[in-house]
Each structure stands twice: as C-alpha cells, then as structure tokens.
Fold these 2 entries.
Entry 1:
Amino acid sequence: MEKAKHFYRVAAHMDYAPAQYFFAKMKLRTPFSRMKLHIAHHWLKMCSEKTGKAIPLLNQVEKIVQFENDLKQHFYYDKGNENFFICNYLSNEKYEDEYSMRILGVKGRKQADIAYFSERISPLVSDEIVICCFPSSDHRNILTGIRKIAQFIAQEKGIDGTDCLVRWKSREKSSYGGERNIQSHVQTMKVFQREKIVGKHVLLLDDVTTSGSSLRAGEQLLLEAGALYVTKLALGKTK
C-alpha cells in the first residue's frame, strides 16, 4: 500500500493524470492524515482538466469540502484530532453549564436534549451523507442518545447508517479507567451493512470526545469497509 502510494505520488507530480486520480483516491481514504481532503481535492481538480473520469469524484469531494467549511462556520474544529465538536463539555458537576447539562441529557436519552442537538446538526446535512454513530462501550446498550440523534437527523436528511458501526464486545469506559487507544476500540467493533457506506461520505457522531481515539477508531473501520470519507463530529469535547 505504501509503495503504491509513493508511486502514485511521484507520478502525480510528473503530471500523469491517471496517477493524479488514484493518488487522490488513496489520500482521501487514508485515516489520520492531515489535510487529506484538500490534497485529494487539489489532485482531482488537476486530473479533471485532462480527463473526464475524475469529474464525478471531484464533484463528490467538492461537496465534502463545502460541508466541512459549513461545519467550521457553526461549530469548533479540533485540528489535533481532526474532528468537529459543538461545545466544550465540563464533566465535573461543580462546573456544569447549560451545554454540559444538555449532553448529560442526551446520555440519559432525554427527548428535549436529543431534539436540541438534532436540530442544530440537521440543517447542515445533505441527502447524500450517511449518518453513523459511535456505539456504547457496553455492547448491550444499543438505543443510546447519540444513536437517537443520528436517527432523528436521518429522518429529515441523509441516509440512516446507525446500524453500520457495531460494538460486538464490551470494553471498559475510558472515563472509568479504560484504555484510550485506537486498538482497544477497533478490536471490539465491526462494520455491518457495508453497502450503505461504500463510496459514500459518512458523518460519524459521538456524544463526547477527549483524546479523539474513539472517533479515529470509527473512522478507520468505516474507511476499511469502503467509505469514501468520514467527517467526525462530537456534541462535546472535554478540556
């Protein structure tokens, strides 16, 4: 894979259109790669000037770029972890604010708080986006608040992908001392209903992010299963 990427990168810089196309596709689907969306967009645009093959994919990527630009106008962006979040989350009860209380409400599956966040996200979503959600650490806990938000949004816009990313084995919650590394998540999750995400732009939702490892693990699995690109969005981020 790395050898192929190196070959396509070199050939792309030598102005070889097919290499520009394939390098852009490979870059787009590489997890944890800074600026990958803009790099892919650059090479697809270069390629489209020489061959029409790149135009459909270029159109998809331009929609993704516009979507993430819109998110940056409304929410915060964590450059270090390459994910968006709506507000800061203060888990210590002494410092809880309105947004933190709403996130706790989502965790408790309160309809008013689920509706609040759904209505903030839904207007930004287009019909082509697949809405996925990060599963609970407890594999038996399926009907989470974040899943209800994803389903609520998908009723209005997008495609319901809430049954795609599944926890098949429970793990200890990170907030209770569980490991905060990507592999601890990857090893306990699987992707189902792959036909929903292959070649698609996925919006992956989570309630709270700290180190970013959970969202990155979800991104990795979805890309390996065939998703074109994954935008990661959390309701809150701990400081």
Entry 2:
Amino acid sequence: MSTAPKPHPDLLVYKEIGPGDMRKLLAESNDADTGGGARDLRLPWKTFRSVMHRIFTDEAVARGGKKIRTAQVTYKDANGKTSQTTLEYWPATTSRPAEDRVSKVHSNPALAGGRLPNQDKGRVFLLFIRWSNGEIRTYYAYEDELRTPGKWAAEVRSALLTCIADTDNKNSKRAGSLLSVQGYYDFLDGTVHCHANG
C-alpha cells in the first residue's frame, strides 16, 4: 500500500515584525506621527510581488473594484487548534507607490486574533511558507530560537541568520531610517534574497 509523499516546503518569505508592525497587529496607532495607522504589513513590490504571488495565488476584486490576491492560510490558534483563514495581498497605492501590502493584519487570526508573537525571545519574524501540496502556512520565528539548532530547518536558519547579519551590518552604516530584515528563500532552485543586499 503506497502512501502519499510527505509535503516539503517550496518557498519561504520572511519579514521582521518591528515595533510599528507590532502596533498594527495590536490595532494601535503606528509609530509615526504622520497619521494613518494602517493595519497592514508592507513589502517593496519590485522585489517581493512575484514571490508573494506564488503564495497569494487567487485573484479577487475588493472594494472599489481593486484587483487583489488572496490566499487560504493554515495556522494554529492560541490553543493549538489548526484552522484556516483568508489573507489579502494588495498592490501599491498612489500614496505608497513602492510598497505592496498584506492587509487587515490586526483582525486576521493567522497573524493576530489571540495569536500575537511572544516578545521575550529576541527579534520576531513572520514567515509565510508554501508547501509542496499547495498549503500556505504562517509562523512566527524568534531570533533566540533561530540561533539554537533544532527548532528550524537548516535552510531556514541559514537564510534568516545571514540576512540578520547583513541587515545589521548595513544598518550600522546608515544615518537615516533602519532597514528591517526581510527576504525569501526558494527551496526549489536555491535562490536566496535578503532585501538589505538589494
């Protein structure tokens, strides 16, 4: 009797959850005094759109006829129960033309809704992982755990730890706003991208 092959990860996208992002998850105002307070996580579209479209594969039409992408995401809630929810990925706006966004993060149970990340394990990273069976899952990874072998696969640890080091190095030479750690790893062809490296 044959059994189906065990799913394996195809694609990892990661984004550091900084103080401003944490406020968005908590549905509080963002850190800037410029108003807004949008409840979304932003990614530079030129780098991430084609990769995020491999995660957000379903086309949809949102308010005002805006074309967006959605994904059915599997996650574990605060009680460890596996559930599914829909996440939305919106294109850049005229006010923020360089950034696409994962929207309504404060109300989505895969990101907030009783599933807020711990804040006592070092820096926090949101991971989107597409599996070989088409399943999309979200996880929180913590810097302390990434630095300890065994919690995460070697490819995940290597991609994130290398990007953390590269981003920290670049930030040490910046006078203005700091870069956040964000990038992706394609398990299928070995492509590694850390946004701090262009």
